[in-house]
């Protein structure tokens, strides 16, 4: 598989590979990676004007994990294998954080790094961007990352060094809430600029996937441009998810109604009924789409007017 000469594989064993890894551990790996990337970019004519960054967790098991606490080994700093936000959904296991940067041209890896297991993603971007700046020798490249890049410290660091970045605005930002209100009364997606149209990637007979964009009239609190993207596929997915939530809420409300009609129903107090309805709408996130009215209907009750066994001519009066 590696194209080694015949017979060379017989001398490869765990001990020999382990000694090679020890040598690599003591080596200047940063300089080694810089040299490899520089030669690869030249040999394969890689475009380094747009770089994409992401991170994941490396989940660890075994006896070595309890002793990996970040202490120096052979004079070289190490990383803590510890608990953190596990992206494999295994919070019971320790981990390391692995960071990878690739080119937009062919998704070729050009830089990677490892951090302590409890390092959050937003703490890695300054170190990564500085490494890429050093590797390329300039800041004239577009750094693309997810919403963890969108912090004041990260963006100001790149901007202050004449760098460029592209990230995702988190829903928790105030600019998102402002734009959602503004767009409902000012612009419709049909008036946006069409950025991309392509064949449906899920169904051959499905509608084209369309992406439209518009620039927000309001910059971020840090003064950066905000571009909003509308996706036809996401609009369909959102509609389907909304319909499922509405149907679930209607089913639960119908079940509540039938329970209220039972003679032994515990939902007699209007306040309790209102609380039950609010719980259903809140749990399904459908309060904006469903209006529920509570009506109290008095049902007359009758009783026998005279004592004795009732017959067909026994007088009846309202209770």
Would you kindly provide a written description of the structure presented here, covering whatever features stand out?
The protein is an alpha+beta fold and 319 residues long. Among the domains are: 153 residues, Transposase Inhibitor Protein From Tn5, Chain A, domain 1 (Alpha-Beta Complex), CATH 3.90.350; 60 residues. Helices cover 33% and strands 18% of the residues. A five-stranded mixed β-sheet has the order 3-2-1-4-5. A three-stranded antiparallel β-sheet has the order 6-7-8. The model has no long low-confidence stretch (mean pLDDT 89).
Which helices and strands, and how do they pair?
Elements: H1 14-26, H2 29-43, E1 50-60, E2 94-103, E3 109-115, H3 125-136, E4 142-144, H4 152-160, E5 164-166, H5 174-186, E6 193-198, E7 209-215, E8 227-231, H6 232-260, H7 270-284, E9 302-304, E10 316-318
Parallel strand pairs: 1-4, 4-5
Antiparallel strand pairs: 1-2, 2-3, 6-7, 7-8, 9-10
Helix pairs in contact: 6-7
Write out key terms for the chains shown.
319 residues; alpha+beta; Transposase Inhibitor Protein From Tn5, Chain A, domain 1; five-stranded mixed sheet; 7 helices; 10 strands; 18% strand; elongated
Sheet-strand content, in percent, reads 15-25%
Distance from first to last alpha carbon = 93 Å
CATH class of one domain: Alpha Beta
Form type: elongated
